[in-house]
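Q: Sequence in, structure out?
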Amino acid sequence: MGDTIVSNFIVLANIVAFLTAANVLILLLLFYFLWHTNNKLSLPMNWKLVAFSVSLVGIFATENVLIRKALIPKDAVLYIQMSALQSFFVDSFTLLYVQYSWLRSHCVVVRVFPNSFKYLNWLVKIYPFVCYLHVFLQAISATLVTLFPHKELPITTLGFAADASIAVTGLLCITFDTILLIAFVEFLRATHKQLLDETDLRFAKIARFGMSANACAYAAFALFVAGTTMDSAFDEEVIWNVSYCCLVGVFIALAAMKVSLHRLDVMDAISTGEQHAKRQEHVPLETAVTGALCTYPTLE
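A: Exactly. Output:
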């Protein structure tokens, strides 16, 4: 490997190290937000969001090891091993994206496409099996090259099968993403000139942030596919890292949705409290003192 290529890889590794540290910071900020707002980590929406962030840390951490230990000094065995581990984090992120988006957005989809609910729900249920098939095949490759480093192995065949599973996973994810995007656009267009009630306002926020996440997901998939067509290993890694940055964009959009909905809940609680206080002004003092207290809605 030429000196120029090595120096380029070192620069890329330093950028990836910075991105790893940045994602660790984002994870800590997420923990602080959940703690500060009394959000229980056991709730599905919360632990999935944390798992999103952990997956991103894993993606960039393994990428850093890949570049520094398996690409600059050529190590084919370590490359296959770390690629399998990185695939686990990438596929976990993809799975979490589908599940989280469905939990947050199925209410919008049902309103726009009521007949499609059962099909999308079925897709979400089978997605984990399709998603982790890729990881399983790569894990087999990593195990074989670790146990039998000097033997001729069917790595090419396993690699082809793994690539095919990626294509199926990507196709299902893009199909899911497209239906969500259409549902968001249709919902926002239908409610554009209407005075939204509280429920519709929540759906509108979900739709807007959901569209941002969809756009980043499309970009990530397109860049990942583009990376596989590169002849240069350096160009491939650069494009794939840009793709991973798009995944960070997906997470930021969904985290921003969480914060925005939390603020809406707080505003609603304050409004409810003010209305309760006004009602208390028109009842006897004894009733006001012994009346039911205003309770804040449970935050996800």
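DSSP finds eight helices and no strands in the chain.
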